[in-house]
Amino acid sequence: MVGKEETAMDLTTAVLRRGIELLNGREQDKKSAAIAGIPKALAELGRTLSGGSDLFDLAQLPRTRLRSPLARARFLRQTNDDAWYKETVMDGETLPFPQPASELAAVDIQPAKVPDDEADKDTLLTRLESHGSLVPVSDRPGYDDLSVYQFFRLLAAVAQCGDSQMHLVAADLSGIQPFIHTGASWGALKTARARSFLLELLLRHFGREVTTAAGLCRAAILQVGGGRLLMLLPETAKVMPHELAVSVNDWLLKQAGGTIYLALADKEVTTAALVGEDFAGVWHELGVLLDEAKAVKFRNKLNELLAVGTYKYSGDDECQACHRDDDFEPVEHTDQDTGLVRRLCPFCDTMFMLGRDLTEYKYVFGWKSEPADTAISLPGISGDKWYWVGGDHSKADYRWAVNRYEEKNGVWPWLRADWVFKPSPAEKGEKPDIADFPYLAEEAKGANRIGCLRMDVDNLGLVDDKLVSQGLPAFLAFSTAVEWFFATGVNECCRKQKRLVHVIFSGGDDLLIAGAWSDTTELLEELGTSFHRYATGSDLSVSAGLFLEHPAYPFYQLARQSAEALARAKNYQRSCLPDRYGCGSADGCGWREGNDCRRKGNVVMFYEPGRDEKIRSGPPPLVVTRLVLSWTQFFEQVCEPARGVRELLAVPGEPVFSRSVLRGLFNVADDWERDWPGWLNRVQWNLSRLRVVCKTAETRARLDSLGTYLRNPEALGSLRSVLTWLDLEQR
Fold this sequence. Notes:
The chain is of the alpha+beta class. The chain folds into four domains: 156 residues, no CATH class; 202 residues, Alpha-Beta Plaits (2-Layer Sandwich); 203 residues, Reverse transcriptase/Diguanylate cyclase domain (Alpha-Beta Plaits), CATH 3.30.70; 97 residues. Helices cover 42% and strands 15% of the residues. A six-stranded mixed sheet has the order 15-16-14-17-21-22, with helices on both faces. Strands 10-11-9-12-13 form a five-stranded mixed sheet. α8 crosses α13, α21 runs antiparallel to α24 and α21 packs across α25. The radius of gyration is 28 Å and the shape is globular.
């Protein structure tokens, strides 16, 4: 409770303007008269968030840099949290990487140049987000990872609540994966990307509807992404999200048949509970309420769920994407490659067209009344709202600017990983369209295969438990930093090499990417390297699973098998061996659980569901598997040897490293996995065959380096992955 409700909105503007004044290195602007009468409770909240500084009286910000919020995820004592951002303007397309202080010491810290003309509250917040996301509010340890944007956004959210009781409202979508993966191979990439986008849009629509109806700016939306939404609302608005959730779930039941559900929970909070240790209890109670809501989803809609309707007489008449078989009017699509006619239900038809348009677009448009063109209708508080992407819709009522910060009234930013590979018109002879599975497999290096890649942040529940005990600001700063990687970072990695892949979804803390097998494999290495660089100064890690198949393989099976590969990676635990892993003493280690280490950071590449892991009983005294590799093993024992063999192949005038040689090395891997004692003899025999045909000393030196790798018992656990990679490239 911060002041009189009738002055709350004026105060919100003053708070946001004060942030811009500080970014510009100016003292308090006398025009911001409302700031002089700031309520004592809000001023005290500001001092608590900044570690004691009064930013409403402060002449300028401390001349220091923002520490990476990911550094709060440290469980090992020897992990160095020397990770700092260079103050730059966020553009929505470039991921900022933290660096050691020594690398930034020679760079002067300059005040930002933020436009300070009159604007509405949402535009002021956009300016703070783009210019103040990498600028700290304090130089005090424990507070130096809170940015100007996060600080003033939270103060504005509290200020908007006026004199009423505050409510922390959480929404969570369940059933996301089955909903996205519905469908076979035909049109799967379009519809899967469209369904993923629809769920993102649904949460942003929900937040925008509630804040607009309550007369609040978007500062009230604290977190949105990864199927989750978190808002801070006044008492007067607490009923709105619950009423809207009922309408949204009715719509979801009709369109998705109960597959997906929006759970909602709210909890009364005080400013003290938001920023102190008590927030852990608030967060736990919200989680319990959400779980209870999911457990009884659609309990008031049993009649609709169990209703007996009119159904199609044959499988030919059902929707050939989602297999819906009730009485609907089908929409026919003709496959341009085969000429076959596909019948879709109206919802899947809309998803198909949306997936077609999710290629080159700058805005997501919204209308309060139905537009003349195709649009998605979502239930709102005061009637339905309509949305679509792309095109030039100057008469739209509002919009989101995708992957950039646009300082215009009614335009909100939306950072999302939306990379999609599009063949040029010259290749297709028609308007650019997204590449389908057959095209992607055909364009892959070597074998005609597609790959499905999943990645997921490890131990996020453990990290969140630590963060929520430090208050809401620490949790939000950390979550935002993780979201940057899965939105901006993933897009940047795909765009840089124009990867032959499609991002199905990437947000929150996980991703799903499908495309040419060669590009998904190379992207696995690139994303792993990028995340390790981005998470420097922390113990945060990701695990990944990669599955390959023929282009005709059903997409939902691709997604399921890649999920199994990821689960295999995340469920694998190594023994707690501090000396071997360089952890020092295990006493008091946050990762230790009994005799196991809870750290993951594993990779399963080229997952083969029909083959079990091979557990070696002999030395070295570790469980060594063929499938599960640590990132260190992946980089050093897969990527580096594969590059070495490619260099061997590229030497002019030398004989080709033939597939028959690869077959011989596959036999070595089989012998080693079977604990056959003669595996080393087979290695020596294969190397001697190659050495005989080598013509230059350079080639022999490269071969000797390969021999060192093949004679290493620990490295042989990764040999099959290396050989599979090279074999697929040679086909």
